[in-house]
Amino acid sequence: MNKIASFSIDHIRLIPGIYVSRKDPVNGTVITTFDIRMTSPNDEPVMNTAEVHALEHVGATFLRNHEEYKDRIIYFGPMGCRTGFYLLLTGDYESRDIVPLMKEMFSFIVSYEGEIPGASARDCGNYLDMNLPMAKYLAEKFLSNVLTDIREDQLNYLQ
Fold it and tell me: What is the pTM for the complete model shown?
């Protein structure tokens, strides 16, 4: 079997950032998959499932309600390795194109108060495994350390 694209990235040298993982043509349009890498793989601890789950619920709710992007969102969810998230959008984008959207989303998560959207037995298959305070901490860390002054090496995979 051929190695898939996401397994071809050098995870030893990969740093937190926003990367275009792939672009796929589907019925005459392009689907852009972004790698929203929040932690340094194999270098720092992975995020726990409770905060990843809370980030997913609050982030996905924000994105699917965003006035400009709501109709372009295909998917927002965690990577199995728990070092970040995938965001799929309809359209042909570069990493820099979504930096303002990611700043807005992570700022929203940092300031979010109240019940986590969809955090009930009726709405979620594992609603008890959520940690909003830790999700907010990780969102603030990513916002401050990466998004605020994002560099070119945090927007393009190393070759």
Answer: 0.95
